[in-house]
């Protein structure tokens, strides 16, 4: 089974109460790929500029991530993000964004990737999300993310994307913006009415809620003292969730429940370090050990 | 087994996006009592003024709540609170507070209550909390709450109270203020270092975290669309939790885990209406039905 992700590959500079990291590997597709690669082979599709340090890709060699869809575009510059987390670190404050190559035309899905089973469309223009999706022949599972920019400026296009995917994974602020409602259970049902068969609302340190035809399933985040840098937690959640679903080849409500636990635990490792330093080291065994601890915590007789 | 609660009995005026309720029964001891009375006999200790409408007490006749400790003080006025909830309704905005009788000397524990097994000291001046506690002969379980006012102005006294109780139940904002930290898992351990054998940090719509010698247990809130008025949710949580613990006569970590679920579910009923309208109607059977639904949601294989 194969899992294709389209999204950003960027260079981040992040400050948190625990320190700072300048010019480190980041981007939605990157965090997603490392988390998902614990469970299945990952195919990454994205674009960087000719300024991208090629040694930054070395770390992918340690994981089962196929970079055949990573375009290095001459004359363009790599996406960059500068941000910081303060206080409870539950929301990033963006200090600067240079879209650079992300403001140009999108990447192309390589022929060798068009037979992918699962497709995750990380946040980008919703029209581009559908263009990318249309290049995959007959995916069994398609899921998208989005962000405040597209909800505010391209809502009609986003609704068209939501109408053609099997699932959506977004955070609570985005979900509230999209629906103009506050109650997350009400919002979950509204997301399902937009087309997807399942929806996940991510709440950062407060966990996540899964919505399927069987009703809401709320789970907490993994309780941990080790929160160094929350960057990429949401993308790691999506990567862990969809990596697991791709591995088991099952998208029943029961499988989705088990999958959000893998997402939760994948994210709990990512936030233990800056950039992907911890995510690249984590083993499948460490993930399943923590999954066991987490499920035991929730098993109340 | 008997459960004594000391706290406020007040007259509230509350506005939420779902409407408003003026001059309705409220107060920490009131919400606590209705939730706890699903599980055990409750003994209420508090003071109202001579302006308190006696018909407001009629509703207690429908529950196993002993009002022998409710003092009606001549020449004094009842505590009043005016507040509103907006947006995600996770935090009340106080529009007005008239402490009235709560600014005078505290109540006295009646002789018939001094043999109580469990004592819950709802939020009041921490010195008064200890004075009240000292009037109970040999309680098996003692738990306190507090609030921002005492954390800011009476921290030394509050630490003395925390040093003599078995448990503390406070919300996330208070816990962060008390410890000057953000990470709730780190904070939970700090609370235990202050004396209590267990601590619960309440997070409103995001659930709660229990801390014992066995480590943190995080659970979500019960996911529901029916959130009319969150007033009293935290006190209902404490009431459901301690009512259950008093009923079963067990304070092991496993019992505490089951107890925070009862607290969660008791709160989920309280917020379905203004004031105690829903809380007074709920049955033990309805609570246990919802407990089953909640535990099944969390039982992920």
Outline:
The structure is a homodimer of 301-residue chains. With 301 residues, chain A is of the alpha/beta class.
Estimate nothing, just give the exact number of structural domains of chain A: 1
The most extensive interface between chains reads: A-B, 36 and 36 residues
N- and C-termini, Cα separation of chain A: 37 Å
Can you summarize the main beta sheet of chain A?
9 strands, mixed
Would you state the CATH class of chain A? Alpha Beta
- The Cα radius of gyration of chain A reads 18 Å
Order of helices and strands of chain A: EEEHEEEEEHEHHEHHEEEHHH
The CATH architecture assignment of chain A turns out to be 3-Layer(aba) Sandwich
Uncertain residue segments of chain A: none
Mean pLDDT score of chain A: 96
Structural class by secondary-structure content of chain A: alpha/beta
Shape of chain A: globular
Provide the β-strand percentage band of chain A.
25-35%
Describe the SSE topology.
Two copies of one chain form a homodimer.
Chain A: E1 2-6, E2 10-16, E3 19-26, H1 28-36, E4 41-49, E5 65-73, E6 79-84, E7 93-98, E8 118-121, H2 126-134, E9 141-144, H3 148-153, H4 155-164, E10 167-171, H5 172-179, H6 184-193, E11 198-202, E12 208-212, E13 215-219, H7 233-248, H8 253-270, H9 284-298
Parallel strand pairs in A: 1-4, 1-8, 2-6, 4-5, 8-9, 9-10, 10-11
Antiparallel strand pairs in A: 2-3, 6-7, 11-12, 12-13
Helix pairs in contact in A: 1-7, 2-4, 5-6, 7-8, 8-9
């Amino acid at each position: 089974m194969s899992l294709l992700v389209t999204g950003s590959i960027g260079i981040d500079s992040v400050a948190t109460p625990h320190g700072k990291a300048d010019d480190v590997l980041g981007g939605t597709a990157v965090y997603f790929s490392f988390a998902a690669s614990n469970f299945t082979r990952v195919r990454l599709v994205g674009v960087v500029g000719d300024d991208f340090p090629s040694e930054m890709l070395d770390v992918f060699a340690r994981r089962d991530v196929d970079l055949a869809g990573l375009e290095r575009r001459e004359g363009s510059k790599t996406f960059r993000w500068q941000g910081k987390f303060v206080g409870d670190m539950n929301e990033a404050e963006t200090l600067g964004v240079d879209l650079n190559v992300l403001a140009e035309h999108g990447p192309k899905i390589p022929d060798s990737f068009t037979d992918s089973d699962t497709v995750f469309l990380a946040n980008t223009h919703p029209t581009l999300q559908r263009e990318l999706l249309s290049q995959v022949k007959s995916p069994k599972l398609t899921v998208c993310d989005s962000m405040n920019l597209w909800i505010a400026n391209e809502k009609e296009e986003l609704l068209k994307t939501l109408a053609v995917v099997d699932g959506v994974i977004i955070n609570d602020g985005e979900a509230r913006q999209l629906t103009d409602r506050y109650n997350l259970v009400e919002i979950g049902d509204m997301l399902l009415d937009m087309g997807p068969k399942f929806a996940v609302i991510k709440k950062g340190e407060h966990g996540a809620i899964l919505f399927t035809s069987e009703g809401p399933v709320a789970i907490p985040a993994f309780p941990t003292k080790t929160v160094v840098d929350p960057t990429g937690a949401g993308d790691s959640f999506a990567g862990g969730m969809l990596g697991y679903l791709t591995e088991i080849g099952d998208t029943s409500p029961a499988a989705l429940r088990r999958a959000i636990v893998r997402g939760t635990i994948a994210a709990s490792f990512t936030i233990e370090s800056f950039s992907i330093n911890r995510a690249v080291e984590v083993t499948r065994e460490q993930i399943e050990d923590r999954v066991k601890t987490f499920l035991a915590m929730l098993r109340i007789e």
